[in-house]
Structure formats: C-alpha cells, structure tokens
Backbone:
C-alpha cells in the first residue's frame, strides 16, 4: 500500500501534504500556491487543508517572497517558497545566493536558513525564451546552497521530503514536461541516498550522465544503443550541489567512456562541471573524450519545431553514443 | 490630431478590431495552430485605446504579456501579429517570440515582456534617450495590477520623477493577477497614491469609458512630454481566464457576470449611437469589417510557414559578429576521425 | 519598562557608548587591526536608541552596513563586536562576517547586511513567524535613506501591510548614500508618504531628539505588535565619510559643519542636565565609563587571535551534512600516483 | 606618445573619456559614477567634463538601473551602466539575462541592446562574502551576452573601447585588486583580437589558462616553474562569452598538459567550462588530466588570512604545475 502508481505532480503534492502534516512549521509561500492551486496544479487543495496562514498566496514580488522565506526560516518556520518558473530566478539570485546561502557562513554558524525553494524549468510548452530555461548552473555555482532535480516520480516525492529536513537552503527544480509522467511512488523507499546519484540502468560500454527530463531521453537513447549492442550505464545525477562524484567516477572507470547530457544551454552548464571532474579524476581510464550534449547556446525560440531543435533528443544522444563507442558516424556527420 | 467628430468613432473601430483579434487568437489556439497556450487575451481592456490614441508617431512603449490590444492600438498589422502568435516566419519576430514577446521597432513597440514588470524600466531608459536628444518623444509602459507589487516599478517611478523624464506608467487594472484578486495582493488599493508619493501625477479612470481614458491620458501624455511623468490606471475587468487553459474557477460567477457587464466595447458603441456620432448601420459595418480583417489575419497565420530550423541560430548576436556554434558541428569536430588522428 | 526618571539617562548612556565604540572602530582601523576598511560609523545617528529601547526581549531585527549603533542599542557585547570587526575568532561570527555581517541569534540580531535593502524582507519573514506562532514578538528593519530606492523595500512594505504583520521599518535618514545627497536620489522626499501609500503607519522624527524618537517608536512598536506595521524615519546627519577612507569631498563644508551641530549625544546630554535628570558629574562618569569600556573592547579585539585556517571550510553547511572538499585534497587525489595507477 | 605607462584604473577611465569624446550617444549611469567619481575612482572627473545628462548618478536601484540602460540602448543611446560590485549582479540577472541578452533574439533581430555593464569583482580587500565574489560563470551561461575580463592595463582600455562598439550587450568585469596595477597603455594597439585569447608567455611544457587577476598569479607561477626547467604557455582568456577556443586547443595540443585557473568558487566555474572543452577537443593530445585550480567552494570570509587562503596563489599554481609536469609532489601531498 505504501507503493502505488501516480504522477510526478501528485508525488510532489503528496510530499508537501505529508511534510506539512508531520511538521507544523512548514509553510508554503508563493504566487498562486493557494486558491489557484499552483500554476501547474501542484499545490491544489493545500490551502483548504492547511489554511491561509500556512499556504500563503503572495503578491508578484519574487525578491520579496524569497526574502520573506529567508526571514521566516531564520526565526523558526520552515518555508517552501515557490518560484513559478526558474526563469524568474534572475530576480531572486541576490536573496538566494547572497542571503539564504551565505547567512550561516557570514554569521559564523549561528543562523541557518532551512528553507526550500521549489521551482520548475525546461522546454516543451512553446513558452518562449523567458519561460523555458534550465538555469540550474547558476545555483550549482553557489556554495552554501543545495540543489536537487528529480527525474522520477519517486524522487519527486523523496527529494522534496528530504529537502524539508535539511538545515540549509535547498533549491528543488522540477521539470514542466514531467508533471503528467506516471510512475511508482514508494513513500517508504527512496530511489537512493540523499546527496548521491542513482544508477538507473546498468551497462558496461559507456556511462551516460544526466538529470531531470534528460534522464528519460538518455534512457531512451540507451535502449536504442542496446539494440546496437552497446550497453550504457545511465546515471541520474539528482543532487547537483553539493555534488558527490564518487559513483560517477566508479562508473566511468568501469566503462571508459562518458557522455553528460543536459537540457541547459551547454556553455557553462552542469554538464561542463561533470565533464571537467571526470576529466580530472578518470583520465587514466578514459578510452575516449568525455562528450557533452546540451542545449544549443541560444535563447529558447517560441516556434515548436525550433524549440525542439534547441535541446537534445534521444536520437541525438544515441547517435553520439554510437559514434563514441562504435565509431559509427551519423548521417549528419561531415 | 484629435477631431471631436471622427476620433471617437476611430477609437471605437480600434476597440472592435482588438476584440475581434482576441477572439481569433482563441480560435487559433482551438485549431491547434498557436505556438503554445500562453495566450493572454485583453478582452475587457479595450479602453486602453484611450491611451494609445493619446500617443503620437515616434512615441514608444512596452507591454506586459497581455499586450495584443495595446499593440493594435498603436497600429499593428494583425496578420503579422497573428503569424507571430502562431510561431511563424512571417510573424513580427520571425516566430521566435510569440504572443508574449511581440515587438516592432518601426511602430515604437520596444517589446512585450513575459516577466511581470520586466519591461517597465525600459521606458524610463527610452525617456532618458528622448530627454538627452531633446526629441520630444514620450514612452509609455503598459502593465497589469500584478506588476504594482514588483519593486522595479517603484525604482522606475522614482527615477522618472527624479530626472523629470517624458514617460507615462499605464496600469491596466483588470482586478486579477492570475487567480489573485487585487485586494489579496495589495495592502492598500489606492495605487495612484503610490505613484503620487513617488512624485508622479496620478489618476485612475473608469475602464468602460474610453473617452474619459483618452481625456486623462491626453493630459498626462502632455505633462510627460513637458517633463512631468505620470501614472494612469484603467479600472477594468478581465473577462476570461488568465491564459487560454484557465477557466477562472477561483472567481465568483456572480462577480464575473457583473464584471463582464463592464464592457468597454459595448459601452462605447452605445455612447456613439446616443451621441449621434454613428448610426447602427455605421457601427455594424465597422464590426463586420473588423471581423473580416481578423478572419483574414487568422487564415494568414495558419497558412504561413514555420521558420527554417537553421534560423534558430540567428539573432542571438548581431550579424557579422561571432555566432553560436551548432552542437552537431562541435560533436562532429570531436568525433570525426580527422581531428582526432 | 520605561521609567520616566532613569530611562532617559539609560538611553543617554547607550548613545554615549555607541559614540565611544565607533570612535574606537576608527582607531582599530588606524592601528591596522581592522579586517579591511569597509567600516561604516554611525556617529550622528545615535538617536536610533529611541527605537532599540522601544523593543523588548525576544524582538528581532536586521540592520544595514551601518549597524553598530543599533546592535549596541540591543545589548551587544562591544568586545565581541570589536573582535568581529577585527576578523578574529572571538568575534560574534568567528571572524567570518566582519563589520558588515555581524549577527547574534541570542539577542535577536538576524544579521547586518552589505546588500543595500537585502535584510529588509527578512523582518517580514520574521513577522510571519511571529504571527503564525502567536508569539507576540516584533521584528524591526534598520536601513538607510539609500535603501528607500530599492524595490525590495516596497515589496516588503506591501506584504507587511497586506498580512498585518508585527514589523517596523526604520529608516535612518542620514541625508547621504555614499556621495549622493538624498535629494539627488529621490524624486520626492516625503518618504513617510510612500510608507502610508503602502498601508503602513508612517512617521518622521527629529534625529537629535532621542526621547521624541522613543515616544514615536514606542507607539509604532505597539501598533506593529497589534498587527499594524509601521514606518519610522530618523532625520539625522552622517557626521563623517561613508566608510573609513572617505573624506566626503562631495559635501559642502558649511553643510557638514551645520550637520554636525545636529548632535544627538550632545543634545541628549544637555537636555538631561536641563531637566535635572542628571548633573554634570553623573554625565561625566557615564562618559568616562563608556570610554573605559570601549578602550577595553579595542584592546580585546587587537589581542584576540585570528581564526584557524581550516575554519574557512566550516559553517558553509550545517555540521553533520556534506561539507566542501578542500582544493588540495582534490588535487592530491588526482595527482598522487596511487589513484592514477 | 600613444604608448605610456599608467594604471589599470586610469586606462579604464581613459577608455571612457575617449569613447565619450568620439560618440556623443555614450552615457554613464550608475551609483556614484558622477560627483563621487566611482567607488574605485574610475569615473573621476567625467561628470565635470560631460555633464549630468551623460554622467548620471543613479539611486540605489540596481534592477532599475540596468533596466533603464536596456531601454536607453534600445532607443539610440549607448549606455555604460555601472554595477558597483559584481556581487550585486543577483539583483540584476533578470534585466541582464532575460532582457538585455534576449531582446534581439525574442524580437527576431529587430531590437538590439548595445549597452555595456561595467562592474568589478574579486577578493583582496577583506570586503567579506557579499563584496568579494567572482561571478562571471553566471554570465558565461547566458547566450546573447558578451563577457570580457581585462587583466592588463592595455586590455583594460581596449576591451572597453571595443565593448562600446559592439551591437550587443557586453559585461566588463574589472578586478578590484588590479586598479592600482601599472602597465603600458598603447591606445593604438590592442593586446589581441576582440573575442580571442592572448598568449602572455610562450612555453612548451604546460598550458596555463587564466584571466583577470589570476593571470598575474599564473605568470608568477610560470616564473617559478621556469626556475625548475618547466616552460609554461600562459594564456589570458580575456573574452569569455562567446568563447573562442581555437587558440586554447592549439596550445594544449602543443604542450599536452593544461591547467585552468580561476579565482571563482571552482564548482560550476569558467574553469570547468574550459577544462571540459579541452577534454573534448584535445583528448588524443593530453599527457595528463586537465587540472582546474580555483577558489574554494565557500563564501569569502572577512578575516584577511582566511580570505587569502580561499583563493589560488602563485605558489599553489606552481606546486600543482610541478606535480603535473614533473611528478614532484608538494609538501602538502599525502
Ligand atoms: C516575474 C514574473 N512573475 C510571475 C509571472 C507569472 N505570471 C504571469 S502573468 C501573471 C499575473 C499578472 O497579473 P497582472 O500584472 O495583473 O496582469 P494580467 O495578467 O492581469 O493582465 C503572473 C503571476 C511572470 N510571468 N513573471
Ligand atoms: C545593493 C547594493 N548597492 C550598492 C551598494 C554600495 N553601497 C554601500 S552603502 C551605500 C550607500 C547606502 O546609503 P544609505 O542606505 O543611506 O546608508 P548609509 O550608508 O547612509 O548609512 C552604497 C551605495 C551596496 N552595498 N549594495
Ligand atoms: Mg491583472
Ligand atoms: Mg544614508
């Protein structure tokens, strides 16, 4: 009974429900989290259950909202602030990086900021350049912050529950393209350890590292590769900051080949960090260069065909994988 | 130049064209031809034409995400607009921006913005340009009541007042920011007091009365041109959901029904008839012409072709400067035998 | 509890202690013992004690970068403060924060902030906590006139008013933000009108009169505790430069000389004497005690030891959770024969 | 006469002077850029020369200031907005990344934003966690933006002059620790091509890649290495976004070894991007792993000794270089 099929959206909602039930200090604050039920319906019904003092519809004041969450966290509440789109994070990077993330340090350990910032990103809805980004790299680069990005239904639940037990600020970035995805939620059994990656598919020929929606493209690519006799180890990075690279290195040292896949614009992305680390730590084990596959270095266009073209697909990952492992060049090779 | 006789009729025509356009946008979506569902209709807010008509050629503006009406008020070509909303190459932005990012340098449209409040400071910057160049132009920001809670608005107002810039802030208060009624988002509702406290000339006008809006806007635009920035709030009602998928379940149906009675197009039509500025036949012809025009815009958009895939790499940087390198080129360089030999 | 007889004297003592402390901070810098030169003295702003004395135990606050006086007003240990300013292990923040980031959970100091306006929303968050917990506490933000132009202030005010939170916004208007006099940064100077327009109870008080400040602050704190947030502005003058290296060449010397006549400490001292609440001997003793106390704080800070190098990796995350990996460990893991074999 | 010795600060000031003289559309806008002459004295005297309409002292309204610059750039001026510390960029990332950088794209090429954002970063003044950061990685990750970071007096002049000729937004990040540095300014001869790195010291054994103040630590390290018979090719990256990697690859393919040095917190830094690119493109040429040397993954502490310890030094770079090239482990090796 503790394991059942549900959606990514419902798993997050369940996590909020269970956490709020268990801890009366948890509050939600954000635009449209109450009456509207969340722009993507994640918080539906919570205001009816927990009232307007715990489920707080905020004005459109992102910097203020995150600042309020910081202050509430400093004084005893455990706020879950919601940023409707990660694209708006440029409005709150000061409160996030200079305030939430640095308070414990600047104040010599006296004042922690146990808050969660929930947001969602990614393409898939023709929402254009200001509503489709993948900006996790900015938060990867902030010491003092934690960053998790669930790719599965079970992780959607457990990473959020665990985030709500952390003494430090955690950013949880969901993916708008995953809300309707179905999967099994086992409320008693997380997919893996907090802070660690998870191997989603075992293989021996190449390691594919990804997270969030690109995990699913990577898994689909791994199927294609398997059809060609290439077995991929597919790792879900899940917890990006701080980044525990032990399991990553173990896998790459086994396979000798690695591809890192991100939906974000490639330059300066999480994929670059992972590739750089592998390059340092697995040098003697590598048979081939560590390949990065990411979004094009462009803003996201609104036109659906262009939008799809701007980010990696399972086909592209598989093509690159075949080329990397079997030296079989794709049709578009020069 | 405003002519007492024909101008109100012209304004009515523009309002009707906006209404018809927005209805066609809804249809575009239902036909599966829009780029996404982030379509925000300005039905109920057509009195904004009172402001756009108070601006003159060369004046510039920015809008929020619900800016179709404003742009039509400033002379947009509905076909190119619709094509943009459909994500087509023939659109105002080559299918890259869509409904929320329409712009047109030629008509002074400095851009619709999908960041609430994001476009507001741009008009202050435009005002700075006009002041420095002594060009006599004015720039106007159009935004919603939701943006009244964004800090950047007050930073913008303060700078405009401090530097006496030729700008006007136009809040289209449709009572809602998504599902949040304005009394649930603001500690105090008399927004023009805020503007006044920052040194602007502030006014709030009935959004069913386009002529009243026009009168106030004309004075404020003139004031702005003379270096006294202003604030005008149009008291309106958002007739439909926030975006195309939203059925406004959070609204009291009674309130909604009443709100829709506050129809600026219907009201203007009736007033014109009463004032004897047009008879039913004139008005019906205007309505029909608008419908025909917007039908054509819709068909144009549906028929138009999608942008070529390679165009996605264009316009990131100006032509003639370093351009983004497509991923396949990079992968090929790494993986092709040649370069690894 | 305020006692009409002794409280003004106690407030004078606190003001004098602040003045003496700040003078020693200047000395610390001249002796080359401060951590950097970003030292912002609150000399001339001591009437803020009227606000800190209106708060009670359990109330919390944040300050801007010029917050030494506020913190002393709330009971800080000057020796630990001075040690922090010197970047020493014995400081309030283990030598990690310095003058601009002093905090003390025990005394409700939620942190000084080096981002102008950065700490303001935190008191709104604290107010939310107090409301939800029905704890009866109040939270106060102290900031300068410069922060009046930061958008986040208005977002904070709006939320405080909207949710009826127990908070007070205290603007210490010392007429300057670095080299910019307030009339060169604000379009309209009646700041309390802004606060009122956002739904707060607003007041502006003469910053040479600590008792007047205290009276107004007491009423506003009480109002805040009852759910009506307030705004109080202390009209003061920044006696010296922005930070230690700044000699204020941008200020009119005459204005400066006049501004320094508006001395809250001197004024309070004279008023106490006139009111017969203290005689010259009492006051001289208080002054001497403050000097002695702050001399000791200075010596304590100079003598205190620097934090151990390894402490830099502590407090990034809470103990018991994943910690940052020192660079040398990483390099060693990559480069040592062992792991590359 | 066109080449003379001056400081980094004066070179920037000279660039502003010359540019404003040549182009009446250039305006400066920022906090304290006028009467005060800039927090670090860079704009001293300009308001007296060009008046308050072109040298604009702005209120403390960072998001608004950058937004105003965007609007002014859209309508015909060429604004140089100043952000006093790059640490405040969290306040303006929306205007920078969502507005300035994306306008040309979103609007289909119609509206460019030819503005410059000048700011400065880095450690060295015990200015603590909110006034000492190196946040260029956030701007590296924004397509549509250009990013340059001058390390020399000549570049301080020329990169800014060139930035002021660009049709798109350029962020120029200076280093607070370099303002008093002396060097030769040749107003007729830039150090290198716009958009390209420059080789600051030629060598054959290892490539050291860095930028801004770390270039000087790298050059000092190269001296130490030379004393041990190791010749380093030291490359100044200068223009980080877009990043032209041709010269980088050429050097590494020659030397077979690379170290990338940054002052920023290492994880998610520019150094990671460079290392990842080298790992992809120079794999067959590499003798050793590409080593990243960066700031510790911590906020910057105020205490001077801790502050110094938090970022790389010439000594550390040299030690790592010796270890990398000659397998000579430093004293702190395990
Ligand atoms: C910075 C930012 N915050 C939130 C959103 C999501 N959002 C889009 S429209 C909207 C409501 C805006 O309300 P209002 O300003 O009144 O404009 P209206 O939709 O009523 O025309 C919200 C919250 C956004 N796009 N940008
Ligand atoms: C966000 C931000 N912008 C700019 C600065 C630089 N700065 C530090 S203090 C200051 C002036 C602040 O003036 P005010 O708020 O009046 O405080 P005062 O120094 O007068 O006490 C400025 C501009 C900063 N620290 N943070
Ligand atoms: Mg609205
Ligand atoms: Mg001040």
Residues:
């Amino acid at each position: 009974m503790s394991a059942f099929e549900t959606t990514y959206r419902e798993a997050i909602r369940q996590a909020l429900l269970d956490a709020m039930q268990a801890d009366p200090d948890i509050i939600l604050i954000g635009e449209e989290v109450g009456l509207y039920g969340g722009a993507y319906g994640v918080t539906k019904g919570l205001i009816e259950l927990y009232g307007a003092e715990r489920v707080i519809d905020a004005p459109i004041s992102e910097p203020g909202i995150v600042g309020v969450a910081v202050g509430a966290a400093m004084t005893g509440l455990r706020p879950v602030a919601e940023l409707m789109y990660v694209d708006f994070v440029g409005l709150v990077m000061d409160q996030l990086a200079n305030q939430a993330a640095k308070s414990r340090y600047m104040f010599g350990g006296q004042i922690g900021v146990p808050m969660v910032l929930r947001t969602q990103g990614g393409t898939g809805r023709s929402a254009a350049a200001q509503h489709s980004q993948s900006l996790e790299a900015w938060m990867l680069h902030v010491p003092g912050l934690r960053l998790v990005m669930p790719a599965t239904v079970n992780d959607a639940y457990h990473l959020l529950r665990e985030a709500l037990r952390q003494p430090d600020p955690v950013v949880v970035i969901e993916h708008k393209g995953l809300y309707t995805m179905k999967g099994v939620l086992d409320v008693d059994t997380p997919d893996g350890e907090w802070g660690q990656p998870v191997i989603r598919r075992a293989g021996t020929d190449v390691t594919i590292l990804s997270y969030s929606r690109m995990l699913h493209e990577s898994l689909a690519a791994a199927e294609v590769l398997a059809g060609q006799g290439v077995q991929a180890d597919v790792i879900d990075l899940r917890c990006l900051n701080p980044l525990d690279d032990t399991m990553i290195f173990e896998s790459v040292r086994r396979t000798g080949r690695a591809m890192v896949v991100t939906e974000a614009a490639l330059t300066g992305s999480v994929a670059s960090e992972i590739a750089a680390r592998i390059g340092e730590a697995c040098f003697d084990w590598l048979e081939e260069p560590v390949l990065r596959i990411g979004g094009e270095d462009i803003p996201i266009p609104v036109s659906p065909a262009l939008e799809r073209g701007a980010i990696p697909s399972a086909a592209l990952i598989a093509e690159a994988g075949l080329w990397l492992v079997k030296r079989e060049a794709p049709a578009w090779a020069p | 130049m405003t002519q007492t006789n024909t101008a109100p009729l012209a304004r009515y025509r523009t309002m009707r064209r906006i209404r018809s356009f927005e209805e066609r946008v809804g249809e575009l979506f239902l036909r599966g031809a829009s780029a996404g569902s982030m379509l925000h209709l300005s039905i109920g807010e057509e009195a904004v034409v009172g402001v756009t008509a108070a601006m003159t050629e060369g004046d510039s503006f920015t809008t929020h995400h619900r800016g179709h009406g404003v742009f039509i008020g400033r002379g947009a070509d509905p076909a190119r607009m619709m094509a943009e909303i459909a994500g087509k190459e023939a659109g105002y932005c080559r299918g890259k921006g869509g409904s929320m990012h329409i712009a047109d340098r030629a008509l002074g449209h400095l851009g619709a913005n999908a960041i609430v409040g994001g476009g507001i400071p741009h008009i202050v910057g435009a005002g700075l340009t006009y002041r420095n160049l002594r060009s006599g132009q004015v720039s106007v920001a159009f935004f919603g009541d939701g943006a009244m809670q964004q800090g950047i608005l007050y930073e913008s107002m303060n700078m405009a007042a401090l530097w006496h810039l030729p700008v006007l802030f136009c809040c289209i208060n449709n009572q809602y920011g998504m599902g949040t009624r304005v009394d649930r988002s603001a500690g105090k509702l008399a927004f023009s007091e805020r503007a006044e406290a920052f040194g602007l000339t502030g006014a709030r006008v009935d959004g069913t009365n386009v002529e009243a809006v026009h009168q106030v806007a004309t004075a404020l635009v003139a004031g702005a041109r003379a270096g006294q920035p202003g604030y005008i709030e149009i008291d309106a009602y958002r007739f439909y959901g926030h975006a195309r998928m939203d059925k406004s379940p959070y609204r009291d149906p009674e309130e909604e029904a009443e709100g829709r009675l506050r129809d600026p197009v219907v009201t203007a039509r009736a007033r014109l008839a009463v004032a004897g500025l047009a008879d039913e036949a004139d008005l019906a012809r205007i309505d029909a012409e608008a419908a025909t025009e917007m039908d054509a815009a819709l068909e144009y958009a549906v028929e138009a072709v999608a942008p070529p895939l390679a165009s996605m790499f264009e316009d990131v940087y100006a032509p003639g400067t370093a351009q983004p390198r497509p991923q396949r080129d990079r992968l090929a360089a790494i993986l092709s035998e040649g370069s690894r030999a």
Q: What stands out?
A: The radius of gyration of chain D is 20 Å. Chain D is about 35% helix and 20% strand. Residues C 40, 64-66, 114-116, 143-147, 174, 176-178, 238, 242; D 31, 60, 62, 84, 88, 91 surround thiamine diphosphate (ligand 2) (CB under 6 Å). Chain D touches chain A through 58 residues (CB under 8 Å).
